[in-house]
Amino acid sequence: MLLDYDRMGWLRVMLLGITGLVTAFLLLPVVFIVLLSFGSSRWLAFPPPGWTLKWYGELLADPAWLGAALTSMRIAAIAAALAVVIGLFASFALVRGEFRGRNVLRGLLLTPMVLPVVVFAVAIYAFFLRLGLGGTTVGFVIAHTVLALPFAIIPIATALEGFDKTIEDAAIVCGASPLEAKLRITLPSIRIGIFSAAIFAFLASWDEVVVAIFMASPTLQTLPVKIWGSLRQDLSPVIAAASSLLVLLTLLLMIAAALIRRRFSK
Amino acid sequence: MTQPFLAIRAIRKTFGSVVAVHDVTVDIPKGEFLTFLGPSGSGKSTTLYAIAGFQDPTSGDVLLEGASLLSVPPHKRNIGMVFQRYTLFPHLTVAENVAFPLRVRRRPDAEVKRKVGDMLALVRLEGFADRRPGALSGGQQQRVALARALAYDPPILLMDEPLSALDKKLREEIQAEIRRIHRETGVTILYVTHDQEEALHLSDRIALFRDGRIEQIGSGEDLYLRPATDFVAGFIGNSNFLPAECLETADGAATIRLADGSVVSGVRANHDFGRGQKARLMVRPEAFRLTPDHACAGLAVEFVDTAFFGERRRVVARTASGQEIDIRPTSDMADAHRGGASGGRRVFFDPAAAFLFPA
């Protein structure tokens, strides 16, 4: 290979340096936010004059923040569940089906991942206004399910592609009905893909802000929307605390996804 | 006439304009081990999958004890099947795999437990009950698959090239296991393979497929010693085909003239040949002798190469017309050796062990 890491000599040092800088550039803001959430300064001064858990106390005492966090979780959970169920059916069609327009359908289902989010947000906002779904949980869930769908389809379809259909046929010869064979044999065999799909679909909704801003109403706000809204009013360290919690859950889920992969890939 | 146990009646399968299986008809008595042998694409697997229910035949029927199987959905056919690929359920243990067909039939726990024990004993994997399929070798996985397929005492067991992914030594070992299990259970087995040695080793009867048709059906000996066509002769065992011209046929025997002009009478012919018709004479490599005995035909050859294979010696010889033939003399090996690696000489064969086929 042209760029062989072992043969790069001094270039290796430079590569490591650049990698380090890029990583720091990407991660430092997050680290700062987390540090500031524990700082005692009212004005988000850095370095903080002292350390405190006060902002977390305020955050948890404020029903508006708590409500936003619960709303986020509820919507993300429902959207993830829907995305996984729809993703399962879609994956069976995309992987096993033989019909005209299969590739078109695949492209269509994955579009939400590449379409500029703001375009999708405006479109669905206008559409939902006419249907009276703007500002409702149902509207929120539908919008986020569409966004989460590609993140569910990709891991499930990949797992299904790696599963030999002959194994399902063997279950049918053994006396299981086609549905029973899928439920008892195929689904457990692709469960890593399903778990991954659930986690990534949940995260796709959990940290989504653009569509959420369009969908939100004063009484229905997700955590990212609440953070965004609060940020425009004042610069309270409570926002840093809320952001840190957002990051924490994301991190935990990513670790969970990695652990599941590792455990079952053996 | 008594009703056959399993009757395959004029099964035909077309894919678009391609006919994969041409009206295949076979009667299979209970307890028989019948092998569908043939090159890939000859329709043997398609026929098997029609019986299993994964391919709907275009026309024809499959009758089990007189009742049509085709209207029964695959999961209710109560047929056992072992596939070419490894099909153990990866998330279940060996015991759970074998128990699966019994569980879907809602058999009582005690029966399931006893049957799983019996089946693992049958395939000699008692100590592996709690292993996952991923921790087993390919041969062990296929034995578990066999145990799973037999756990519910199916009347028929279908096997679709179950050993093709295994290496030669393991294959022979499991062939012996399959023979033993067939003997012990008495299950009727339909076995698909493209390996003629495997077919000869395992089967009571062999149905040799070619281009979607059964070319010949019979015991291994029938196919080997009495091939109906040159295709059968070429597929089962090794064969030499010598160009010949037919001079006369009578009562399944023919008199012919070989390329070197020598006339041989008494070769076997089960076709009608016209006088002067071009034909091919099939002689098995082991039918050749290096010394003449009574009623032998001779052939002038030149030895090109001799190779030693332990129990047998293989000689590559060239006829006067330049055709290379394969000779595996069963006796007088010392003589083959004495003749040296090369040089002109004559080899002999019994005309009654030679078959004449149309060119």
TrEMBL record, chain A:
Transmembrane segments: 12-38, 75-95, 107-128, 140-160, 192-215, 235-260
A Pfam family recorded for this sequence: BPD_transp_1
Residue intervals of the ABC transmembrane type-1 domain: 69-257
Any one annotated GO CC term: plasma membrane
Entry coiled-coil feature ranges: none
GO biological process: transmembrane transport
Topology of this chain in the membrane: Multi-pass membrane protein
Cellular localization per UniProt: Cell inner membrane; Cell membrane
InterPro entries, sorted: MetI-like (IPR000515), MetI-like_sf (IPR035906)
Source organism superkingdom: Bacteria
Keyword terms, alphabetized: Cell inner membrane, Cell membrane, Membrane, Transmembrane, Transmembrane helix, Transport
Family statement drawn from the similarity comment of this UniProt entry: Belongs to the binding-protein-dependent transport system permease family.
Official protein name in the record: ABC transporter permease
From TrEMBL, chain B:
MF terms in GO: ATP binding; ATP hydrolysis activity; transmembrane transporter activity
GO BP annotations listed: putrescine transport
Keywords of the record: ATP-binding, Nucleotide-binding, Transport
Domain ABC transporter: 6-236
InterPro entries in the cross-refs: AAA+_ATPase (IPR003593), ABC_SmlMolc_Importer (IPR050093), ABC_transporter-like_ATP-bd (IPR003439), ABC_transporter-like_CS (IPR017871), Mo/tungstate-bd_C_term_dom (IPR008995), P-loop_NTPase (IPR027417), Transp-assoc_OB_typ2 (IPR013611)
One GO location term (cellular component): ATP-binding cassette (ABC) transporter complex
PROSITE patterns associated with the record: ABC_TRANSPORTER_1, ABC_TRANSPORTER_2
Family: Belongs to the ABC transporter superfamily.
Record PANTHER family: SPERMIDINE/PUTRESCINE IMPORT ATP-BINDING PROTEIN POTA, SPERMIDINE_PUTRESCINE IMPORT ATP-BINDING PROTEIN POTA
Entry protein name: Polyamine ABC transporter ATP-binding protein
Organism annotation: Kumtagia ephedrae
Biological classification of the source: Bacteria, Pseudomonadati, Pseudomonadota, Alphaproteobacteria, Hyphomicrobiales
